[in-house]
Amino acid sequence: MTTVDYRLSQLDALEAEGIHIIREAAAECERPALLFSGGKDSCVLLHLAVKAFWPAKVPFPVLHVDTGHNFPEVIEFRDMLVDKLGVRLEVASVQDAVDDGRVVERPGQSRNRLQTQVLLDAIVEHGFDALFGGARRDEEKARAKERVFSFRDEFGQWEPKAQRPELWSLYNTRVQPGEHMRVFPLSNWTELDIWDYVAREHIELPSIYFAHQRTVFERDGMLLFDHEVTARRPDEAAYQATVRYRTVGDMSCTGAVESTAGTVEDVIAEVATSRITERGATRADDKFSEAAMEDRKREGYF
Amino acid sequence: MDLLRFATAGSVDDGKSTMIGRLLFDSKAIFEDQLDAVERASRTRGTEYTDLALLTDGLRAEREQGITIDVAYRYFATPRRKFIIADTPGHVQYTRNMVTGASTANLGVVLVDARNGLTEQSRRHAFLLNLLRVPHVLLAVNKMDLVGYAEDVYERIREEFQIFAQRLNVADLTVIPISALKGDNVVERSAEMSWYDGPTLLGHLENIHVASDRNLIDVRFPVQYVIRPKSNQYHDFRGYAGTLAGGVMKVGDEVMVLPSGFTSTITGIDTYDGPVQEAFPEKAVVVRLADDIDISRGDMICRPHNSPRVTQDLDAMVCWMGERGTLRKGGRYVLKHTTRTVRAIVRDLHYRLDINTLHRDEAADALTLNEIGRITLRTTQPLFADDYGRNRTTGGFILIDEATNQTVAAGMLDLDKT
Fold first, then answer.
1. How many helices (DSSP H) and strands (DSSP E) are in chain B?
2. Which of A16, A162, A174 sits opposite B283 (nearest CB)?
3. pLDDT confidence of residue A290
4. Which pLDDT band, with edges at 50, 70 and 90, does B96 fall under?
């Protein structure tokens, strides 16, 4: 008699959970969309969506909130990927919103905060009632307490004290018109899980995740790209360095780390020994206050 | 490497946050910037030492009020296992949060202060773990350093807990003496308690056998989504996507589909990575059948001679979670069970259970927030259900208030008595 191993590895368990969540939202919500930034988490998310419906195509569009200050490598990658997968891409543009006066840009400040209004406008315009996001609970303290199906009221706000209890794998997906759900299939993944899965599944990522030469300068302890949008001051010296990015965000507020990790395997080795979280290392937007992320989430941020 | 989900319960004073902080810290799951943030916050508030509890108190409201509001999920890994902690606070809303955290847990940690022994609260925690059928229970006798690492203190608590646990369905109970603050028997073995020869807390979490906790006997496949590509390459493809809730399905197996009762044969089990010969619980797959039967979301695929109960009358234990309103006889709700959503009416409230004394109050006419009781429900459509003790997925359900869309109750089916 042969004995079959019916145990699930942790990556298989996380993958199965993610697929279950995606199918559940697609089955119960009228107009879902997948928030896609080109970052590794959204690449894994899209990969799970492809797996969830195979051999059919992903039955919902991807939505990119384009700040206009994205890394060009990431935009190129985004267009290549949606083309290859045959999914529909919707772009919500911060530049358009600035141009027609829906949001006001403050000089010298990142466009990160402006994304919230642009996203909420896009939700109304398209009538989306569920948005998949790649957020993980290990990223940040406020996220550790957020549900997999996270309810947003008609203003797009998150109310941490009024969250619906979430038991077993039973998700309450019900919303009234104008309200919507944020759905986080990667809630239980850690940064290392993401990288292990990227390696196992051979998931393609934008090139900026891997070591490359770039002209950078230091500001507030971060290495920023020397580019028009970062507006380097004369007292900030630019220099060539071998760097990579741990997260993909707006060029104006996403810092690089010095690294020679050129392959997924190199990155895994680096992440496994890192003593600083990815957001702590490279995101200026989370550092304003102890509750920066919580405040932005309440307003309707990802 | 596999995954272990565990829930922790205990009040602020039992040292739960310190224990979790110790596990995260000693397993190197805490990063320097997180520790910096905690040290900065500790200084701001004038605390003398680095308060590891601040790592788990995530929200501003919690930090301002010094309490924990909700279930928080934490992650760490050792070379042997990945762990997901459902960290539930011990204060007023404990029942709702603990029931939530325990619903997905393989193991529950009940923490007691060695100086106080078993309290009403620790009995309540053990009872809730049992109600949710968490298969493994670990009693951590904490603060052993404050009782001089005395064996007789530990033995007394262990004995008392084992006597209490007789009244519960605890199949696997382990008792470990620890000091979370000093690190004794959490990750490292204690030099102070040579009389204890059992595993450390982490050692136990790493080695406990959980693969048998699933039901591999009764095939239960709730249909979640019907896949019809309608493409040239897959013109006639029709597959049923879902997550296996029980049993092992094999290609060639004869199956029955509920509610129709039609039988067919499995012709393929597909995944994006290619076809497989078998599927087992928690796998998300796509099943193809030999016959063209009308099957939609909410249907259940099982074996012809091993089917779940098909019923509209259900007996269940429920925990009321609604902030407002109460559960009363005659109440109407939306009920979600596996992939099936129906309407339900409360036919009867038999009793309210006092979770401290296990006394049944049969005079009760309502359940309010955090109360547990036994009810009979009638549904508009049949459910395909099992006893919760036999299968947590096909035995658990939630009730939703149709007016507010809030999840107001969690239920565990008890079909043996229906």
1. 8, 22
2. A16
3. 47
4. confident
Distance (Å, whole) CA A245 – CA A42: 15
Q: Which two tokens stand for residue B28?
A: 């190197």
Architecture of domain B2-213: 3-Layer(aba) Sandwich (3.40)
The answer on pLDDT for A55 being more than 80 is yes
- Burial class for B163, CB neighbours closer than 10 Å (0-12, 13-18, 19+): exposed
Q: What is the SS3 string spanning A128-185?
A: CCEEECCCCCCCCCCHHHCCCEEEECCCCCCCHHHCCCCECCECCCCCCCCCEEEECC
Q: What is the CATH number of domain A10-194+292-299?
A: 3.40.50.620
Are the folds of B221-302 and B309-417 the same?
Answer: yes
The backbone torsions φ and ψ at residue A63, rounded to the nearest 5 degrees and listed phi first, read -120, 125
ipTM of the complex: 0.93
Phi (first) and psi of residue A22, to 5 degrees:
-65, -45
**Does any CB of chain A come closer than 8 Å to the CB of residue B77?**
yes
Query: In whole angstroms, what is the distance from residue B410 CA to residue B103 CA?
Result: 10
- Interaxial angle between packed helices A40-53 and A10-28, expressed in degrees from 0 to 180 and rounded to the nearest 10: 70
CATH placement of domain B309-417: 2.40.30.10
A215-265: pLDDT as tens digits: 999 998 889 999 988 889 999 999 999 999 988 888 888 999 999 999 999
Residue B96 contacts A where some CB pair is shorter than 8 Å: yes
Q: Which residues contact B418 (CB under 8 A, 6 or more apart)?
A: B309, B311, B313, B314, B315, B376
What three-state secondary structure class fits B385? strand
For the packed helices B94-102 and B120-131, what is the interaxial angle rounded to 10 degrees? Answer: 40
Q: Which of A8, A17, A141 sits opposite B58 (nearest CB)?
A: A141
Tens of pLDDT, residue by residue over B167-222, are 888 889 999 999 998 889 999 999 999 999 999 999 999 999 988 889 999 999 99
Tell me which fold the domain B221-302 belongs to.
Answer: Elongation Factor Tu (Ef-tu); domain 3 (2.40.30)
Which of A114-123, B21-30, B147-156, B389-398 shows the lowest mean pLDDT across its residues? B21-30
Among B residues 143-182, those touching chain A with beta carbons less than 8 Å apart: none
What is the C-alpha to C-alpha distance for residues B193 and B197, in angstroms, rounded to an integer?
Answer: 9
Search chain B and give the residue with CA nearest A271.
Answer: B31
Domain locations along chain A: 10-194+292-299, 207-286
CB contacts, 8 Å: B404 with chain A: none
B3-50 tens-digit pLDDT: 999 999 876 677 888 888 888 877 776 666 666 676 676 666 666 555
Please report the residues numbered 104 through 143 in chain A whose beta carbons come closer than 8 angstroms to any beta carbon of chain B. Answer: 137-138, 141-142
**Per-residue pLDDT at B58 exceeds 60:** no
How many CB pairs below 8 A link A and B?
182
Q: What residue spans define the domains of chain B?
A: 2-213, 221-302, 309-417
The model's pTM? 0.93
Round the CA-based radius of gyration of chain B to a whole number and report it.
24
Using the structure block, give the residue that is written with the tokens 């599944």.
Answer: A201
